[in-house]
Amino acid sequence: MENFLAYFSLHVSDHLIILFTFCISLLLLKHVVFIYKRNAPPGPWGFPIIGHLHLLGKKPHVTFKRWKDTYGNVFKIRMGSWDTVVINGKNAVKDALEGSDDTYSGRPNFYTMKVFKDVNSNENALSFGEFDSSWFVHRKLASKALRTFSNTRNNSIQELVTEEAMYMIDALLEHNGRPFFPDSEISKSVGSVIYQLCYGRGEDVRNDDLFKAFLKSNDEFIKFTGAGNPVDVMPWLRYIMPWKTQKFRQLLRKTKQFRDINVQKHIHDFVSDRLRDITDAFLAEDLTDKDGKSKKGNISRNRLISTLDDLVGAGFSTISTTLQWAILFLASNPDAQNRVQAEVDAVVGNGRNVKLSDRCKMPLTEATILEIMRLSSIVPLALPHYTTKDTILNGYTIKKDTVVFVNLHSLAYDTDTWKDPDVFRPERFLGEDGYLDKEKTNSFLPFGLGRRRCLGEYLARTELLIFFATLIQRCDFIRPDGETYTMDGVLGLTYNPKPYKVLVVERT
Ligand code: HEM
């Protein structure tokens, strides 16, 4: 009897194992057939609920570049609750973003965007807002206002950036040969440029309480938002970590209050034929018809005014971070620093300020800025895109409503294009004739591509040229004895260098 029972229990467990294996195989098969049917891109195995979040690490762009070697340029993952596709490499990125049908022009409706909308009287934001017909009007008006105040026709942008570069240099030299991390000196000048473009030129902006509050709230925002809010990818977390959204809401309200004070001042002394800044340009837009109905594609004044936050948010930390990297690369590469200084000395000398018209005579200076942008790759995954319809990319079907990460870092570090992508070598951007090699400059896309490409590219290139060339015209950047540098950064809102110390010495 005992033997029989032993035999039977073995028999039962065998059956259970067989049944279990059968069920798992069925599930796997179903999964494989499902993927096959959908012709979805390949991708690594993930967990339920969190998907692949636990595998991304602190630098998802680097992880994605590694996964590209296994799964190809287009692969799929799951970011918590969101189906996601990652696109790597120049060809796949261009195929996706250069198309004229706006398949990839959406932005995911992440939870923090809902909070943003809530705080802004239910209005859509420019950078993260929904993609619809009114978005086109929004982008067009924002672009027009930015262009009006950052074009070079009346030289005012050149003067403004030069003035701020001089302030920056004075502040850097105040350290009197003691090593320091130059982040706050850079932030103050870069912040002052975008602040004055948005809210008006002032004799004494730096001592203005509103400007000081602006710098502080910006700093707080950048520190809090860091590399993102987990609630965006797992919205149910807001019930478990309510403070994550509460704090975000508080910061947005503070930014809005501060913006409202500035806008009210503008409304008070607005003169339509004397526009002083971007706020005035927005106020001047005639958005309603005589019945009070919205005339231009459902754009309200509130919505247009909220663009000020987009411009400040996007135009501040990007330029500051690039200049922090620039100083780090110059101090790490004294020979390259000498070469680019020699070019600026030859073209500009030290008797006058750098002008935008010098650009075409300073190819090595441009190449050095490009090399800094390539290596620092400060917005490595662009902003998240979102598919507006089903589509096919690299032979795979990508469904509507998929989050899309465009891995710009994979272009900047592509070994086929650059051979030695980790090496700092500005001359790689120059052709045999000594001028910029167009093919090389188009081989990485620091400002993105297509409909959602950076709105501030022109302003960014202008600021970077004048800040950078003025800095090297007036100063030497030296690595202090015993200081070791790492080119490894930290991903926050942008990809930032780790704090480092540098000696800044006035050139004689
Ligand atoms: C070195 C400087 C900068 C870099 C590397 C940079 C890069 C980028 C990138 C990669 C995107 C996302 C593109 C995409 O989603 O495909 C973006 C978007 C954007 N940038 Fe910039 N940016 C810089 C400076 C600026 C400046 C100075 C401004 C304006 C003052 C600005 C305004 C914007 C706006 C408004 C968007 C959102 C565009 C949209 O969604 O339609 N950026 N930028």
UniProtKB/TrEMBL annotation:
One of its GO terms (molecular function) is metal ion binding. One of its GO terms (cellular component) is endoplasmic reticulum membrane. Pfam families: p450. The keyword Glycosyltransferase does not apply. InterPro entries: Cyt_P450, Cyt_P450_CS, Cyt_P450_E_grp-I, Cyt_P450_sf. Belongs to the cytochrome P450 family. This is unspecific monooxygenase. The lineage of its organism: Eukaryota, Metazoa, Spiralia, Lophotrochozoa, Mollusca.
